[in-house]
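User: Study the chain.
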Amino acid sequence: MTEPFQLAGLSLDCDDPESLARFYLGLLGGRVLWNDEHSVGIRIPSGLTLAAQRVEDYFPPQWPGTAAVHLDLAADADLDLCEQHAVAIGAKPAPVQPDPRWRVLLDPAGHPFCITTRVVAG
């Protein structure tokens, strides 16, 4: 069996799924696939599904530190402008910025994500 799986989506724990989904729609575009009391799923233009799912007693990961997975986002505009846009819709700059080619931001639920204008072509 070769390549038996495909990445179907990514789930992000949070305390407010609707707010987090709205943030990622504003950041990445896309459309809502479902919205119920436990989760909101969105399909972003790349075809990936992001699911914001409510977790009781949720606490955000700490950057750097406890975040096991984070999103890396490519941008084709000025990095400062991209960061300003993300902050305007609800992101916060992370307190530690380890590499000037990337900007580490925290989404409204505290998950780190990185943006860069430098993407290695495959």
Notes: The chain has a mean pLDDT of 89.
